[in-house]
Amino acid sequence: MHALMDKYAVLVAAAVLRGNGWFSQSVDSDGFEKHIKGMDLFLPDITGEGFYEAPARAEGCTLDPAFHVAQWLGPEYPTVIYHHGNNESPFDYRWFGKYSFKRIFFGHRASYEANLISLRAAFHNHGLNFYIQKLRALDNWVGLLSAAVLLEEALVQYLKNRGKSKVIIVGISLGGWVANLHRSFFDTADTYIPILAGAALDDVFTASYYNRLVGSLARENRAIIENALNFEQRFADVQTPNVFPLLARFDQYIRFDRQKVSYAQETVSVLAKGHVSGSLAFRDIRAHIAQYM
Fold it and tell me: Which residues, including other chains, have CB under 8 Å from residue 264's CB and lie 6 or more apart?
C-alpha cells in the first residue's frame, strides 16, 4: 500500500509534466563544491521572531532563500533549524495547510524548550509553475541546495557567536538532503536529523521510481547526474557521530536499501511506510526528533 501511494503520486505528476520534468532542458552544472564556494549569501540583522529574506548570489543569478524565527526563547536554549520537503508551501500556517514545519514543530511549539527556525528553499515563493520551470535545469537544483546549505551555515555561525546554544539541523526529504550536505561540507552543527534522505541523491533521479519524472535529456546523461549529485564519499569522510536518520522501508523515491548504506547501521531508525505516507507520519517524526533534542 505504501509503495503504491508513492507510485500513484509519480504517475499523476508525470501526466501533468508530459516529459518536461526534472533536468529536461539542461544538465550543465558544476557540483556542490563549486556552487557552495562560488556563492555569497546575505544574512540580515535578526531582531527577534519574524520572517527574513536571505538572498544568495552566484555568477549570473540571484536565489531567494528565506527563514522564519518562529520561536525564540534565548541563546541559552537549544536551537532547531528545520528545512521543509520538496514543493511544500513554506510559511503557510493556515489551519488546513500541510506545511511540515507547522505539523511537526510550530503547532506543538509550547512543548519544545528550544528556539525554532524554519527555512524556505529558493524558488518556493512564486507558485508551482515557476518552481517546475526552474527545475528543468540541473544547475538550478544544485544551486537551490547549495544556497540552503549556506543559509544553514550562516545561521549556525550566528547562533554559535551569540551563546552556547546547541544547534540541531533537521530536514525532511529535500530538507534531509540539505542537512546531509551541510554535514558533508561544514559539520558545524551539534546534531543532524535527516528524515527520508541519504547521500546518494543521484539515485532518486537515475534509479528510483521517481525517475519517471526526469526528462529524457537527463536519462540519457546518467553519468552527469551522478557526478553532480552524489556526495556519498564526502559524507562518509566526516567521522563525527552526530547524525541520526529516519528512513522509510517502502520508500520508492529514497530507496531504503540504497540510502541506508550512507549511515552507520546502528543509527538508522525505520518507518514501515513509503515516502508519501512517511512524510505524513508527523507523530512518528516528532518522536524520533525528541530523542536527540
Answer: 241
The C-alpha atoms of residue 241 and residue 90 are separated, in whole angstroms, by 30
* Burial zone of 23 (CB within 10 Å; 0-12 exposed, 13-18 middle, 19+ buried): buried
Nearest to 271 by CA among 261, 259, 281: 281
pLDDT in tens, 27-70: 999 999 999 999 999 999 999 999 999 999 987 789 999 999 99
124 DSSP assignment = -
pLDDT at 266: 83
pLDDT in tens, 144-153: 999 999 999 9
CA distance 196 to 278: 8
CA 69, CA 154: separation in Å to the nearest integer? 14
Say which residue the cell 552543527 belongs to: 189
E strand residue ranges, 110-195: 115-120, 167-172, 191-195
Q: What does the pLDDT average to over 234-238?
A: 96
- Reference 251, options 1, 3, 20, 48; nearest CA is 3
Contact indicator for 58, 140 with CB cutoff of 8 Å: no
